[in-house]
Design a protein that fits this description.
The complex is a heterodimer.
Chain A: E1 4-13, E2 16-26, E3 31-35, H1 42-50, E4 57-62, E5 65-66, E6 77-80, H2 92-102, H3 107-120, H4 136-148, E7 154-158, H5 166-183, E8 186-191, H6 194-200, E9 203-208, E10 211-216, H7 218-223, H8 228-233, E11 240-249, E12 252-256, E13 262-264, H9 267-274, E14 280-285, E15 291-293, E16 301-310, E17 315-321, E18 324-330, E19 341-345, E20 352-355
Parallel strand pairs in A: 3-8, 3-9, 6-7, 7-8
Antiparallel strand pairs in A: 1-2, 1-4, 4-5, 9-10, 11-12, 11-14, 12-13, 14-20, 15-19, 16-17, 16-19, 17-18
Helix pairs in contact in A: 2-3, 2-4
Chain B: H1 3-14, H2 20-47, H3 51-55, H4 69-75, H5 80-116, H6 122-128, H7 141-151, H8 157-181, H9 185-193, H10 198-209, H11 211-227, H12 230-235, H13 244-254, H14 259-289
Classes of the chains: A alpha+beta, B mainly alpha.
Chain lengths: 365, 295
């Protein structure tokens, strides 16, 4: 096992920077998720680490070795692909044996390792089958097996679960997590599904437009998103974000919307709002921090229900505040109807403020 | 109700009614079959007639005295007819085989490069490969002859091999590129991570998967070279170098009367192609339809 360091990594195609100055450290035994929407550069970053595409500038270190110019085969890595990339003409046994054969291990040792991996992944009975005779979940498991027979320094996984159906995905998710815990392996895991990242990873690297937006533990990213992109990307349903003007009224800071409603800020939030580069901020609030009232309570903001979405254990209600929508979660028993007038209460301790211009978090410290 | 009683109407519903269009289609296919098969059957029948029987009118539909004399004569290295025929046959086999091997050797890496690598002028090169196919082959007869004379290749089999390669390669490259496009690049990436060099990944993973394409390409080049007449007729003059198509034509224009011999030679010329096709046709069909639908 080994740590991985990316230092000012850049990959450009012509004038387009697919990966732009990404720096991060993956500690030994850590599970790091690269997460972001499609085209954000996460898979490119992974391919750079794997050595499948040449880097434009920057440094990649695996263990204590600079691997910039090493072939993929010399980087001591294993990779699991989204489409599994099993060799279709080989049996499962030969698929698992291939990486060992390429490293010229003795035959009996190959056999021992292949059977051990098959036993761990519970697929000894599949060894003589061809990949096309396996189900999606079994193929996925073979791909995982092929990565782990070699005992590499780093595991790279490129959306390994996205071709599976929903139920199997949840099951394989816990299997991969278990596998990481048992092996205390260093894993870099690419996914577009923030839920996968949050549930599996020790740390998540949120990317957008080739730029690393935030790199921290899922809890930290969830609690303290560094900018509006991260705030809107992590968490489901997404954090509601509303652009507002900061005004001073009678010695207090008040957020005022262009449609006329206003929100008085607590002293701490007022100090945050004053850090904004312009008198505009973006207010962020997660659904669980908002409360819905059916009557006008002082300090609440009036709105109108747009839709009610019961999901079983919780009901999400979309509410129009002026022309912006906020999402509130309620008990499933709550009786709310579309178009009903309601009042929304913000939790001053748990709301987020972002600079209206730079979109960066205004959190103190 | 029994299960068979339920199944019966379902079967009937699935079968389409046979209407006039279907019969017209069958009739058309029958006519086409007649059109292509009768000359071949006639060739075979004539080849086992005696020289006299072949000239009779009205013709004997079935030879009164079938004989393999013509075949014996052609395959007997003791007489001059047999010597010539076997030499032509060998020449054709030689030229076609070398053409095939070289075409595959060029087409495989070329197609792979067009499929996988992005290099300046890739599109231009790829379409210019097709340029040759946009003109009838005869147009190039004189220029190529002059070129071959300049290269000192006139009256060598090399001139034919080079020419046949330029004619066969465009389609071969296009066909194979389609094949490589269909092989997920992740397979090679996986192999490279598993410890293979780029070339090993190509050899161990990509090549076995493209075998049907390579076989189709090989058949295509072989048949093209085997059947070609005009260039062989123009580039070669020495009798001992002629390939079968030219050889048969030239040899039997000197012995006009020997129709059974001519037909026997024609039949034997078609044997290698038919055998190749029968052995490998399933690959050929697969190669031509590969990529037509997404899997």
């Amino acid at each position: 096992m080994a740590h991985v360091v990316l230092n000012d990594l850049v990959k450009s195609y012509g004038s387009f920077n697919a990966v732009n100055n990404v720096s991060l450290t993956v500690n030994d035994g850590e599970f790091v998720a690269l997460v972001g929407p499609s085209g954000c550069g996460k898979t490119t970053t992974l391919n750079l680490v794997a050595g499948l595409i040449p880097i434009t500038s920057g440094e990649i270190t695996i263990g204590d070795r600079l691997v910039n110019d090493l072939d993929p085969k010399d980087r001591d890595i294993a990779m699991v692909f989204q489409n599994y990339a099993l060799y279709p003409q080989k049996t499962v046994y030969k698929n698992l044996a291939f990486p060992l054969q390429m490293r010229r291990l003795p035959k009996d040792e190959i056999d021992r390792k292949v059977r051990e991996a098959a036993r761990v992944l519970d697929m000894t009975h599949l060894l003589e089958r061809k990949p096309r005779e396996l189900s999606g979940g079994q193929q996925q498991r073979v791909a995982l097996g092929r990565a782990l027979v070699r005992d590499p320094a780093v595991f790279l996984m490129d959306e390994p679960l996205s071709n599976l159906d929903a139920k199997l995905r949840v099951q394989m998710r816990s299997e991969i997590k278990r596998f990481h815990q048992d092996l205390s392996a260093t894993v870099i895991y690419v996914t577009h599904d923030q839920l996968e990242a949050v549930t599996m990873a020790d740390k998540m690297a949120v990317m957008s437009g080739g730029v690393l937006q935030q790199y921290a533990s899922p809890a930290e990213v969830f609690a303290h998103p560094r900018n509006t992109f991260v705030a809107g990307f992590v968490g489901s349903p997404a954090m509601s974000l509303i652009p507002l003007d900061v005004t001073a009224e009678g010695g207090e800071s008040v957020l005022r919307s262009s449609e006329g409603w206003s929100l008085r800020l607590s002293a701490e939030n007022a100090r945050k709002a004053q850090r904004s580069s312009t008198p505009k901020v973006i207010l962020g609030a997660r659904h669980s921090t908002l409360r819905l009232h059916k009557d006008a309570v002082p300090g609440t903001v009036p709105g109108k229900v747009y839709t009610v979405e019961p999901t079983g254990d919780v009901t999400f209600v979309q509410v129009y505040l002026g022309e912006h929508i906020v999402i509130v979660s309620l008990d499933p028993g709550a009786l709310v109807r579309a178009d009903e007038p309601v009042w929304i209460e913000f939790d001053q301790a748990r709301l987020h403020l972002f600079d209206g211009e730079t979109q960066q978090s205004l959190a103190l410290g | 109700m029994t299960s068979s009683a339920i199944a019966a109407p379902a079967m009937g519903a699935r079968r389409k009614p046979i209407d006039g269009w279907r019969w017209a289609g069958r009739l058309f296919l029958l006519l086409m079959l007649f059109f292509t098969a009768v000359p071949m059957i006639w060739m075979l029948l004539t080849s086992i007639k005696s020289g006299f029987a072949a000239m009779q009118f009205p013709p004997q539909w079935w030879p009164a005295e079938p004989t393999l004399a013509s075949y014996q004569k052609l395959l007997d290295p003791q007489n001059s007819v047999g010597q010539d025929f076997l030499r032509f046959f060998w020449n054709s086999l030689y030229v076609s085989s070398i053409t095939t091997v070289l075409s595959v050797a060029v087409a495989v890496p070329a197609a792979y490069a067009f499929s996988r690598f992005h290099f300046p002028g890739r599109r231009f090169l790829f379409f210019s490969v097709l340029l040759r196919n946009m003109f009838p082959a005869v147009i190039f007869l004189v220029p190529l002859f002059i070129l071959m004379r300049f290269l000192g290749l006139v009256n060598t089999h090399g001139s034919l091999i080079l020419t046949y390669m330029t004619f066969g390669l465009p389609l071969a490259i296009w066909l194979l590129k389609g094949f490589y496009d269909n092989i997920p690049i992740q397979l090679e990436q996986a192999a490279r991570i598993d410890g293979a060099t780029r070339f090993q990944a190509f050899l161990v993973v990509v090549m076995p998967l493209s075998v049907p394409g390579i076989i189709a390409t090989a058949i295509y080049s072989f048949i093209g070279a085997w059947n070609e007449y005009i260039y062989a007729y123009t580039f070669l003059t020495r009798n001992d170098q002629l390939t079968l198509p030219v050889g048969i034509q030239r040899f039997f224009s000197e012995n006009t009367a020997d129709f059974p011999g001519l037909m026997a030679a024609s039949f034997m010329m078609s044997v290698p192609v038919v055998v190749l096709f029968l052995l490998l046709q399933r690959y050929f069909v697969r190669a031509l339809t590969e990529g037509a639908v997404k899997h």
